[in-house]
Every structure is written in structure tokens, then in C-alpha cells.
Amino acid sequence: MKPELRQTKRLPMIRFSAARLRRLRKLRGVFVQVLVLCCVKVGVHFFGLERLSVNQLFSAMVASTIFLLGFLLNGVLTDFKESEKIPAELATSLQTLNLEIQAIQIYHPEAQVANALTAVTGLGQSLLDWLKERISTEQMLARHTQAHAEVVGAAVQFKGDASTLRGRLMQDLAVILAKINRVQTIRDTTFVPLVYWMADIAAVLLFAGLVMARAENLPESVFFLAVISFIVILLLRLIDDIDNPFGLSDINSAEDVSIELLEKAVDRLRAADK
Known about the structure:
This protein folds into two domains: 3-82 and 199-242, no CATH class; 86-189. It is 79% helix and 0% strand. It is mostly helical. 25% of the residues are buried.
């Protein structure tokens, strides 16, 4: 097997292993927090500081906290599902641009489109660098402008009724620009901050109630504290993580949209450019 093919097959496994390690690291952090709460509960029970009795209102508090977290999770999942489509749409626009520019040279062999094809490939690489936060949004927009100028330069070489072809080229560039602005908006905008505060406060109050609740059977009380706190803390961490689906440069981010399709598209453009 050629080294290039071997390396290509190894990349998904490396990416999968890195994501799995981040998820395990996040779970480990949750387990540590749960363990601390359980130790506090044992200490409170040992010193006789439990002052709350468990009743129906306490059950309602648990249910309302879980409901609030479910509402918050549903809200951020909507943006996450939308974000999953963006890399594929960017890849489609880049490949379509490349094909349409090549069509100009088929219609007119004397047309010079090499710079435009190179610019499209460079635009794709810039998109990858930007999604991984290696370049700023201002740099990304500047490179889009440069690619736009090169594509226009190729489009004007098409003679005859070029309105349809030029329109498709400009539309693909507009789609890419729209997706850039959409990704930046998702990165900069968090789900309603007040709802986050409510969820954090509700979780703290719930944990305090579980710790201070009277326990006739300590192992049983610790078990329920561990289960409920594990679910709540993991949900809070998950919501915070997927609120930014493009946190590819954050080593603590375990759940991000996949840009593998866009990477493959850029690789194909780069190979065609050689």
C-alpha cells in the first residue's frame, strides 16, 4: 500500500481516538465532581448537619431541574444540527466552483483560468484553517475577497451569453460568504445567558438539598446523590460543549461537527491543481 493511502486511512482513526480521549477526559472530570459531592455528603451525615427532610416538594425540585436542562439541551441541539450541514455545503460550493471554472476553459480553450482554480483551492484551505481557528475571521474574509476577484477574472473570459454561468459562480461565492458569517454568528452567540444562570443555580440548589437531606440509610442516600449529580453535571457540561459546535481548536471540546468531508474536498481540489 502506498504511504499516502496508508496515511489517509490512518487519519480517521487518529481523529476518532482524539475525540474519544476528550470524551473520557470530560467523563473523568464529572466523576471527580460527583466523588467530591459524595464525600461532602458523608461528612455532613457524620457530623449530624443534615437539616432537610425528603418530601414531595423535593421530588418536584429534581423534576423541574431536569426539565430545565432538557429545555436548554433541546435549544442548543437545534443550532448543532444546523451546523452539521455547513461543512458539506461549503465542500459542495467549492467543488461546484472548481467544475464551473474548468467549464470556461472547455468552452474557450484560450481562457486562462489557472489562477482562479488555485484561488478556489486556497479558499478551501483557508476555510479549514479558519474553522480550526488558525486564522482570524478578518483574514478569512480577505481571502474570500481575493478568491472572488480571481473567479470574476475567469468568468469575464467566457464569451457569448454568460449570464447563467456567471450567476452560478457568484451564487456559490455568496453561499460560502453566507456560511462564513453563519459560523461566526454561532461562535459568538450563546444560548440565552439567563437560562444558563437558571440552570446553574438550580443545579447548585439541588446538590445542596441532596447533601443536606436527612438520610436514614447513608449508602442509599449517597447512591441517589451520585446518580442525580452525575446526570445533571454531565448535562451541564454537554450543553456548554455543544453550544459551540465549531470548537475544533479547544482541547476540552469533545463534541464538534465533523469537517472530514470538507477536508476531503480540499484534498481533491489540491490534487486536481497539480
